[in-house]
Design brief:
The protein contains eight helices and no strands. It has about 200 residues and is mainly alpha-helical. It has one domain.
Length: about 200
């Protein structure tokens, strides 16, 4: 069924668009795959990082402004993430710069975190500058991880072209498994309901 799909063509044609859209929504999985595609010379690493950084920043900017204007009504609806919201709020109050930079790395806070920061009335200019730095760091780390994963797999398997579909599926399964493990660990941690 999949042997007739030309993954090179699909990646070269839609790869950057997929990275941009994927990083607006979630990002890590598509970014790792983008890094692997860059290692295979189907995409280029710097544009992968650039598109991912732009999408990650724009997504967080939108969430920030949503939190700034509608946070008082929206944030209470995320009651299952209350422990994480309280943690981010405390971090914003004590260390606003650190909270803006690191919120995209906090599990379970990727969507709610920027809204909480916006609701805390952090300066929009400060948020934009630090958010950009955080997005570039995040995109560089995950795209580079994908690039070096491609290097490692090529050393083990040789030419990766015949293995592209299984590699994509394995990366997706691995990321889902990690998310499930993190969710259950956070859920079972004393004093934390659900993150």
């Amino acid at each position: 069924m999949f042997e007739h799909i030309d993954f090179n063509y699909l990646l070269a044609t839609y790869g950057y668009l997929a990275i941009f859209i994927g990083c607006l929504l979630e990002g890590e999985t598509i970014l790792i795959l983008g890094g692997m595609a860059a290692h295979q010379h189907v995409l280029k690493l710097l544009p992968v990082i650039g598109y991912a950084s732009l999408a990650g920043m724009l997504g967080d900017q939108l969430l920030f402004w949503t939190g700034r204007y509608f946070g008082a009504r929206l944030i209470p609806r995320f009651h299952k993430q209350q422990a994480g919201i309280d943690r981010v709020t405390q971090l914003v109050n004590q260390h606003p710069t650190v909270s803006i930079f690191s919120v995209r790395f906090l599990y379970g806070m990727r969507l709610v975190g920027p809204m909480v920061i916006g609701a805390c009335k952090v300066s929009p200019l400060k948020f934009t500058v630090i958010n950009l730095l955080g997005a570039v760091t995040w995109a560089t780390l995950f795209a580079s991880a994908g690039y070096w994963a491609g290097e490692f797999l090529e050393g083990v398997l040789g030419d990766l072209k015949p293995y592209r579909l299984p590699i994509v599926l394995c990366v997706i399964v691995l990321m889902v498994a990690l998310a499930v493990v993190r969710h259950y660990r956070a859920k079972n941690r004393p004093g934390v309901k659900s993150l």
